[in-house]
């Protein structure tokens, strides 16, 4: 019987970093990596890494290290990256175009399936091999292409309206880049990506260093 | 005598959200806001808000609320947003162009002062009223325009090289969007913005909901 384990958000946040580093290690042709080396590459202590990975089960061999391929597969499963999520980006301005071209979508196993915009000049254009559809067609396109995740890259005043449309159309998750709180029904997962947080954080630390 | 207060990273991460909401409140012409309303707008409990803001001093009046203008100014000071940081973006692809057009730079008090690229076709073009310089001129431009923060938006394999150049040129902080760990001297502040973390987080939670 599989036990239900409660995992902290901080641990979940580190798993993609492990996954990325393991991928690079694998590309280098390596089969085993120690927690010490993983730590060195990531700037995380080996103790923290061993603790994080121990919450999910036994992926390593004491005194040898972790089997890269096996650990990668396991972390990918935990994160649900083996589910082949289909993604749609709404709002094909600078940020939306950057996200549509984001190489990690593919690396992480996500499929860019649709793009939406409200601007007639943008609708019909091709970005990263995907044709931009009109946001008014979101219901039909989300259903036809089985879109799981909607990425919101529209200006803040339109974010809630777009979220409502995506939810009605049937997405399960929303990745929100608009700097605005969005309200969604409880069965919808939402992750807010707020760039001002990172920037303010940097400002805070520079200020402290320069004082 | 001003006491040195240790503030948790989680609190620091919430301050920009407070700042943003206060700005909107101010634009609405409001002078006072309660922790309850701030909480409702942000999806954070009023208790958490009162606790966060209490670590810095007394910004509110019991039973009335916070004075919007005063609290905004204080949070801005704590985050160092009153320092008029000068910013340069390196790598003017889709993401770099999106960052160069990022409206929150101005809202948060940052000045976009320079853009750099290595591609001769991009060098000399204008993005958001700033001319793109060649990365080889980074030393001169950073000094002349007093750049404090370098934003790295180049592909991962070039990220460390660009960071080294920015540090040599004299920046104090680095905001890194390349999905690669960057090593910098201890006196340099670095904040890594890794989009795959948010995306994997979303995947994790959708998987848990659908199970």
UniProtKB/TrEMBL annotation, chains A, B:
Pfam families: CoA_binding, Put_DNA-bind_N. GO terms for biological process: negative regulation of DNA-templated transcription; response to redox state. The keyword Zinc does not apply. Transmembrane segments: none annotated. Its main location: cytoplasm. It is found in: Cytoplasm. Residues 17-56 bind DNA. One of its GO terms (cellular component) is cytoplasm. One of its GO terms (molecular function) is DNA-binding transcription factor activity. Keywords: Cytoplasm, DNA-binding, NAD, Repressor, Transcription, Transcription regulation. Residues 80-181 form the CoA-binding domain. NAD(+) binds at residues 91-96. It comes from the Bacteria. Modulates transcription in response to changes in cellular NADH/NAD(+) redox state. Homodimer. Belongs to the transcriptional regulatory Rex family. This is Redox-sensing transcriptional repressor Rex.
């Amino acid at each position: 019987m599989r036990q239900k384990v409660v995992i902290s958000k901080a641990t979940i946040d580190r798993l993609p970093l492990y996954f990325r580093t393991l991928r690079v290690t694998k590309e280098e042709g390596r089969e085993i990596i120690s927690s010490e080396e993983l730590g060195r590459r990531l700037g995380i202590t080996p103790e923290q890494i061993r603790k994080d990975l121990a919450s999910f089960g036994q992926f390593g061999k004491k005194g040898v290290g972790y089997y890269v391929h096996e650990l990668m597969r396991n972390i990918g499963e935990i994160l649900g990256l083996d589910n082949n999520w289909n993604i749609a980006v709404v709002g094909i301005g600078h940020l939306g175009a950057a996200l549509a071209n984001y190489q990690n979508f593919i690396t992480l196993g996500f499929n860019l399936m649709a793009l939406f915009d409200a601007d007639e000049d943008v609708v019909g254009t091709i970005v990263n091999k995907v044709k931009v559809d009109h946001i008014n067609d979101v219901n039909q396109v989300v259903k036809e292409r089985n879109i799981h995740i909607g990425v919101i890259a529209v200006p803040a005043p339109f974010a809630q309206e777009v979220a409502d449309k995506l939810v009605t159309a049937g997405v399960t998750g929303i990745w929100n880049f608009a700097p605005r709180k969005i309200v969604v029904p409880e069965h919808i997962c939402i992750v807010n990506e707020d760039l001002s947080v990172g920037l303010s954080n940097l400002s805070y630390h520079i200020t402290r260093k320069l004082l």
